[in-house]
Please model this.
Amino acid sequence: MRLTPTQVATYRQEGFLLYQQPVLPEKKFTGLKNCFENLLAALPDDVRPESMDVPHFMHPELFEWLFADEVLDLVEPIIGPDIVLFSSHFICKPKGNGKRVPWHEDSAYWKGMIDPMEVCTVWLAIDPSTPANGCMYVIPRTHNAGKKGFSDYDPVDAGKNVFPTEITATQRNDKLAVACELQPNQASLHDGRIIHGSPPNTSTIRRCGYTMRYMPATVKLTGNYVDAYHQVYLARGRDRAGNKFADPSKSYPEIARYREVSGKRGH
Model:
């Protein structure tokens, strides 16, 4: 395992952890970056690069990295040996006009979708991620506070923000926010319930990260999400909740189309 007991304790207490060491071997990281650049270049002109949600549904080649031992060995000390890939998302803020990510909890977008709400996100930096180009900020320890991942939300300007809502100002303390500064091939790990967000990117440097989201195999995908809207994949170990798993060797264009026409986007 790649995390020390002290690092695991920090993650559990604070709700996040910065892993400021190379996650992948250099050649493997270069392969992921090249894969992303190809996907970015293929985006239609009217699609924002922040919107590259669940790309693995259409591009099974991404499982080379989603199932990489180097990544799974980061999350196993936190969620255990039976690991399910819940989701992934390239969130790319272009230089100059990268949109702001309003304060939110990932769990708010997954309410009614999984039970219990236990997800660990690996935010792998493709580019440098600093305050200058809109790095992620987290508010420590909010994963264990209040409504445990289901705050109240108010509308925000959808033209300036990646999401159209934001946690009500009285339910967060922005002054406590901590910057997650990373160099390429470093990562942050965060609990799905922690409050986080990021400012716009007005710099001359792009900011991209690949979020790889994992849950213990004891978590159940619930509701009407299976097949029509979402799929999960067994990444390591055994099923513990009776989930139906998708085939990582196949693409699922019908799910991608449904998500697009229904306006249902994950996070």
